[in-house]
Amino acid sequence: MCADTAVKPTTAAQGEILLEAHDLARYFDVSKPWLNRVIERSERLTLKAVDGVGFSIRRGETLSLVGESGCGKSTVARLVVGLYGLTRGKLVFDGEDISDLASRTGRQAASVRKRFQMIFQDPYASLNPLWRVGTIIGEPLRFFRPEMSSTDRRRRVGELLEQVGMSAMDANRYPHEFSGGQRQRISIARALANEPEFMICDEPTSALDVSVQAQILNLMRDLQDEYGLTYLFISHDMAVVKHMSDRIAVMYLGRIAEIAPADQLFESPHHPYSKMLLEAVPSLEGAGKERSVIQGEVPNPVHPPSGCAFHPRCPHANARCKAEAPRLIARSDGSEVACHGVEEGRLP
Amino acid sequence: MSQDIQTRESAAPVVPPKPSKWRTFLDSDIVYSWKRQPVVIIATLVTLIMFAAALFAPWIAPQNPFDPRQIELIDAFTPPMTTSDFTGNFYLLGSDSQGRDVFSAILYGSRISLLVGFAAVIFALVMGTALGLLAGFRGGWRDALIMRIADVQLTFPSILMALLIFGVIRGFLPRSMHAEVAIIVLIIAIGLSDWVQYARAVRGATMVEKSKEYVQAARVIGLPARKILFQHILPNVLRPVLVIGTIGLALAIIAEATLSFLGVGMPATQPSLGTLIRVGQDYMFSGEWWILLFPGVALLMLALSVNLLGDWLRDVLNPKLR
Amino acid sequence: MSSTPSSDNQRLDQRSAAPVAGHEPGTAGQEPVLSVRRLRVEFPTRHGTLVALDDVSFDIAPGEVLGVVGESGAGKSMTGNAVIRLLEPPGRIAEGEIHLSGKRIDNLPEDEFVPLRGRHIGMIFQDPLTSLNPLFSIGDQLVETIRAHLPMNEREAREEALKLLCEVGIPAPESRLDSYPHQFSGGMRQRVVIALALAARPEFIIADEPTTALDVSVQAQILALLKRLCADHGTAVMLVTHDMGVIAETADRVAVMYAGRLIEIGPVDEVVRNPQHPYTKGLMASIPGITKKLERLYQIEGSMPRLAAIPSGCAFNPRCPHAQKRCRDERPDLMPAEGSRAACWLHDPVDPLPPRQDVEGREVSHVR
């Protein structure tokens, strides 16, 4: 497997495609209850959390989704693992259409589900507080490999704990006895239990302190090298994303603004929003230097702006940006950008 | 290796012999809080004594007040702490108009009160938990339907609901069966009038737990809804329910007593504490005060101590402080 | 105190010298707005007394921004809460003194202390919704705060409120004066909170994680605003945050905390670029950057000790690559170290410990 993360697949030649997402969309009904709507004469409200997102992930690579709150990055993660059903679009995992995964049950679901796993943000909420750590980590094994004897399972749980830097003895303890970083290690051990190929990581270090974050990020890289794992990595932290990713998709209000190889995005971002995000990152190197301040905030996603959703904050917006939503267009340097200005050549 | 410290630190507490379960329990916050509150200690003792007295009534009570053959009509209205001149029986708390020993009647009566209380709470708890889980987990129209019914029921005082349910159930049964099934009808009536608070608490807790990431992790694995509900969510929502149950027990005991006092609960041939109070009140001003007073005090002590325990449990197990 | 008598003596000596020798760049020649001396905060519990803050001393000069940084449990918020007396019970100040503009405030009775909040010490918290009353319009809240502290009538106060909203960059402030907190976005709400904090023109503001709940782009706006306004008004700021990036671009000086102790303090450029304490070094090296690309991040092994199990000597010693016997036995005080001051025996002016290994190479291997 293509486990060498140092190789950047800037050309589309390396590795087979593991996951393909076409035009994913997920709408949520956020209307008030029926009675309130009738009395207050308010309309039905739809939140387009994800609206037309497409990408592909090659085996062994890390694709990151990055963006500010409300951009839909976590929703995309939950669509991919089938926690939410798709409103529109198509998901293909290793050649198999899994668009209907959320509604699948039994064997049909298990054959796909045993091949990927998810790591969550909150280390305090992601472990059942009443279960021993060993039971928590063994859960996927009990479900996917019922034939496994309990002795074998216990041995496997011990191995997994040691693999994530803990002790096999910890299996007998309860989650509340551990710190946030240790809990996140337990989450990772659970995710690894059934030897998945693909991991969806939803802000896995956002709730952790920086020194612990470094431990967890290093661990995730080690595991990727060892098992050739493929990561879909979700984060709002540009520096973390840069450290972890081969490619990065910048999202804004339910759409992808730009997808590019990680190094390239940081060297020469095309989309004005990507530029803005990069400039907003506080820099440690230039201590005391002020970052350029960007005006405005992310609009309410229930009432997104017309056309390009970024136009009210964009210094380069023109009439076309207000009227027409841009499409992702591939560029010769391997990036894809959804911006009229870039497409027309007004912007570099 | 890079995680040496982590390993050392986490393995360290396992190496010394683990304190026994009993030791851990004695050192827990619950025991600590219990030991520091004399009121709670007294409430616990009173509750335990009354539970034991009710449970072992046949061995403690001098007579079986439900058995007419054991009752000496000639001993009617014997005052407390008196030995009867006629039969030589000793009446600790006096006897009533039928010559029934009040002490025995209280022991057997609290048996019925506690039986009805426990059964009604379990009935309400199971029904409320099931409906609350369904509403919270599935949402949608099921949630709306269940919670609207609950809202409507809440607008009536629960004793009124119990009276209503009691009347409706009795209406369907032949008169001859009334005395036999009185206890079951009482349990259903009180249980049905009381499920709403369990349903509400469970629904809220279910919605909170459902959105937590450990449940999502189980869904990513593909665990069927049934397993998620019973293995993950139910055990995690039970704690508030058990606390409500303890307080609910005191309320159910009082509800039973109220119904029996109003004459719609237990018949005088199988008196509960409430029935005893109803019978006793006729003699309150004619000098035979013990027939009313002692059952009343027994009911008060039982309901109060159970309630105090429930309040204390709620404070100790408050999930916010966990 | 957990240390040996000999080290206690030694520390007392250094302490008595501290007010003279310990003045830091930025405070020279000026009386500090806030001066915290040997602050110790304890939490009595049934398993013993937890020491949440242990011997913390620092000054903040007028107009200066002091960043207080540390990981969760380091005591950074506790320091701010102790200053404004918002410690959660049973927490209490066990030792030490707090001076505001030369006046001792930690021993004031409650009814004399409360008026200081708002008037002399402004507060900005992480969640703007906790600082704003949802039932009153922001105009009413501003007017009320202004009139509570300054001699103004309703009309003057309203004009002042308008000016403040203008200053914090609320667009069309005339029309927003009668809006309620829920009608504002997160960033705008935090601007209102800043306006409230500045309303009574306090000489000192405590900002506890003011931008943690905000998106990066908004974060930059709020920090720039805070920095500009405080410079304009000459307000000193104690900026409490876990984010080194925020500190690096906002603070003038940085105080790094670990396990309830102040372990390094100095000018921001020095501490960020050339950290002296091994913990600060490790912390800086473990932050992924956007300009560099590393295969692995430096990681400090283990985790911060719980308050109930703070190691003897230097609290960092079990995780420190340079730790030696002395570090386990004696607690180091702040000592001059290059441009800053660090609580580490490596910088002992009399008998410095030799460093065991240089972490600058960002090696992961960990020599003990």
From TrEMBL, chain A:
<dbReference type="InterPro" id="IPR013563">
    <property type="entry name" value="Oligopep_ABC_C"/>
</dbReference>
<dbReference type="InterPro" id="IPR003439">
    <property type="entry name" value="ABC_transporter-like_ATP-bd"/>
</dbReference>
<dbReference type="Pfam" id="PF00005">
    <property type="entry name" value="ABC_tran"/>
</dbReference>
<dbReference type="Pfam" id="PF08352">
    <property type="entry name" value="oligo_HPY"/>
</dbReference>
<protein>
    <submittedName>
        <fullName>ATP-binding cassette domain-containing protein</fullName>
    </submittedName>
</protein>
<comment type="similarity">
    <text>Belongs to the ABC transporter superfamily.</text>
</comment>
<dbReference type="GO" id="GO:0005524">
    <property type="term" value="F:ATP binding"/>
</dbReference>
<dbReference type="InterPro" id="IPR003593">
    <property type="entry name" value="AAA+_ATPase"/>
</dbReference>
<keyword id="KW-0547">Nucleotide-binding</keyword>
<dbReference type="InterPro" id="IPR017871">
    <property type="entry name" value="ABC_transporter-like_CS"/>
</dbReference>
<feature type="domain" description="ABC transporter">
    <location>
        <begin position="25"/>
        <end position="278"/>
    </location>
</feature>
<keyword id="KW-0813">Transport</keyword>
<dbReference type="InterPro" id="IPR027417">
    <property type="entry name" value="P-loop_NTPase"/>
</dbReference>
<dbReference type="InterPro" id="IPR050319">
    <property type="entry name" value="ABC_transp_ATP-bind"/>
</dbReference>
<keyword id="KW-0067">ATP-binding</keyword>
UniProtKB/TrEMBL annotation, chain B:
<feature type="transmembrane region" description="Helical">
    <location>
        <begin position="289"/>
        <end position="313"/>
    </location>
</feature>
<comment type="similarity">
    <text>Belongs to the binding-protein-dependent transport system permease family.</text>
</comment>
<protein>
    <submittedName>
        <fullName>ABC transporter permease</fullName>
    </submittedName>
</protein>
<feature type="transmembrane region" description="Helical">
    <location>
        <begin position="39"/>
        <end position="61"/>
    </location>
</feature>
<feature type="domain" description="ABC transmembrane type-1">
    <location>
        <begin position="110"/>
        <end position="310"/>
    </location>
</feature>
<keyword id="KW-0812">Transmembrane</keyword>
<dbReference type="InterPro" id="IPR025966">
    <property type="entry name" value="OppC_N"/>
</dbReference>
<dbReference type="Pfam" id="PF12911">
    <property type="entry name" value="OppC_N"/>
</dbReference>
<keyword id="KW-0472">Membrane</keyword>
<dbReference type="InterPro" id="IPR000515">
    <property type="entry name" value="MetI-like"/>
</dbReference>
<dbReference type="InterPro" id="IPR035906">
    <property type="entry name" value="MetI-like_sf"/>
</dbReference>
<keyword id="KW-1003">Cell membrane</keyword>
<keyword id="KW-1133">Transmembrane helix</keyword>
<feature type="transmembrane region" description="Helical">
    <location>
        <begin position="112"/>
        <end position="137"/>
    </location>
</feature>
<keyword id="KW-0813">Transport</keyword>
<feature type="transmembrane region" description="Helical">
    <location>
        <begin position="149"/>
        <end position="169"/>
    </location>
</feature>
<dbReference type="Pfam" id="PF00528">
    <property type="entry name" value="BPD_transp_1"/>
</dbReference>
<dbReference type="InterPro" id="IPR050366">
    <property type="entry name" value="BP-dependent_transpt_permease"/>
</dbReference>
<feature type="transmembrane region" description="Helical">
    <location>
        <begin position="241"/>
        <end position="269"/>
    </location>
</feature>
<feature type="transmembrane region" description="Helical">
    <location>
        <begin position="181"/>
        <end position="202"/>
    </location>
</feature>
